[in-house]
Amino acid sequence: MLHEYSLKADTQHFYNITSQVQEAVSKSGVTSGICTVFCPHTTAGITINENADPDVVRDMLLGLDKAFPDRPEFHHFEGNSSAHLKASCVGSSATIIIENGRLVLGTWQGIYFCEFDPPRNRKFYVKVSQN
After folding, report:
1. Chain-centroid distance, C-alpha 13
2. pTM
3. Are 125 and 37 in contact (CB under 8 A)?
4. Which residues are bridge partners to 5 per DSSP?
5. ω into residue 119 within 30 of 0, thus cis?
6. Rounded CA gap, 64 and 88, in Å?
7. Enclosing H/E stretch for 84
8. Alpha-carbon 67 to chain mean position
């Protein structure tokens, strides 16, 4: 079962989408299976990381900015090559196990939509499959 969600991304940020993903799982009725979260954009991504301390998101964005700064040598005419690099590094999807109708995540884990080229109106997809 495929679910589509929209997100208004005003700033470069990791948007916590865990509740929307769990909602898709609940709506599907699947109790044991796999959930795939997919981002169809080339300057955004999906990741799983800590959701307890907001400084982790801040630090991850800082690290990605340091690793992939805007550079005058980049040729891409839109001027967002660093966003493409960040998105490729993070990846466009995540797969989560479903058991007893719930996402199997670690105590501190959350699912994030990672925006690297704001402002944008974005979509992400959640595909739920029964075992």
Report:
1. 10
2. 0.94
3. yes
4. 124
5. yes
6. 11
7. helix 81-90
8. 19
